[in-house]
Amino acid sequence: MSSLTSLPDYEKFVEIQQNVYRARFSLKLYGSTYPTSIFLVHIPTTKDCILVDGGDPDNVTKITNAISSHFESFPEYKLKYVVLTHGHFDHTGVLLKLLNDYKDIKIVMGENEIPFVVHGKKYSEITGDTLTYQLLKHFFAEGKAIGNEDRVIAIKEGREDEFEFHNDLRPIFTVGHTPGSLSYLHVPTNIILIGDLVFNFPLIQIPIFSAKNNISIPITSFSVSESKNSIKKVVEMESEVNFVFPAHDLYQNGISIEEFKQHAQKL
Ligand SMILES: [Zn+2]
């Protein structure tokens, strides 16, 4: 395992699977730093591009620079959507800037994230089943609300195939971390981007969450039991999934589905 700043995709997009690029940034929180991934997915047939998640507010300049330099390398591609795994502040930092810079893009999210991401409801208002979060939630920053729904597309459960590019990047409801959390299955390469369903880095920094391996137990602002159900749901997709990529991941190739399955069995 390498340190965050020496990762090949530190602050720049690097292809991790065909047509899937990842950049990782350093999220500073309470004296420690945590890896935070954002992904760019190319749709080769239409030359559209989808950004998965929007990083944290402290890294907005670095993120927009990474996106701009990616499109300098791939001038034929055009950003069309930002799709969110969920609306926590460390996944939505760059949204307002991108909405301003790219006048045609739309933001895609699970229907139940809309009150938080668009209308400014606070995740800390949720009374979930998570004691840890009930204790910690007041220390977490809230994201800045988008303010109106004009440039937002809500994904509804059972109607995931209404997303234009669902044949390439299929939204999968994996609620639990938040009420409307989505994962995204990249159909051509059999990888799934799971947001914060689990983390994948040594959690010795946060002893109360530490697990035997580097995959965390569910850490949620909504429902641990729903998170566990969603982890099972990903395991049940094993015929379609080779690798699982969490948003907070210090490793190069994510988590193999076998390793993810073993972790799920221990929960
Ligand atoms: Zn996060």
UniProtKB/TrEMBL annotation:
InterPro entries hit by this protein: Metallo-B-lactamas, NDM-1-like, RibonucZ/Hydroxyglut_hydro
Boundaries of every Metallo-beta-lactamase domain copy: 35-248
Superkingdom assignment: Eukaryota
Pfam families: Lactamase_B (PF00753)
Protein name according to UniProt: Metallo-beta-lactamase domain-containing protein
Organism, scientific name: Rhizophagus irregularis (strain DAOM 197198w) (Glomus intraradices)
